[in-house]
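Problem: given the chain below (188 residues), write out its structure.
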Amino acid sequence: MEKITRNQVRTNLIVGETENTEKTSNLKQRWVFLCGLLLCIIGLNACDSSRIFEQNVDIVQSKWHKDSVLKFTFEITDTLSRYKFYYNIRNTVSYPFYNMYVTYYLVDSLDRRIASDLQNIDLMHPKTGKPYGDGLGDIFSHQLLALSNVKFLKRGKYTFKIKHYMRRDPLPEVVSMGLRIEKVPPLK
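Solution.
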């Protein structure tokens, strides 16, 4: 049997304390990093003061059926401001057309139509086929103006409905569709 001296015991204890101190220090650094990252994410979201509503809906299997009406319900509390509406569209590079026709319906809380229109949205260059928007892999994201300078006369809940108006049903390679509403800054 080996005898352990006092110096070896002291050295083992010091090494063990150093390892525990390093582990504790690493845990503290990770915790500080995660808290900082969380605060940055919250701060970045809070900086978007003009946005009053944003929601995106994933299209099941990236096939948007003609009878599938996407509904976005939001609340208006400020009737003095004007608003801009944007489509948030994500499609794959394999989307078979350069554009997309959509019909929108803006209705009030009693389902009375306030506005509606058929709109043509260009997603790719018509001659070259080069996708517009921001691409990540084979998916491209677009944020395109749908309506500008919209003024609401009454406070309350409103619904913005969207359906595609293309010949192909289902419309393939549409990953998601969404709506973003921003306040228009007042003129100075």
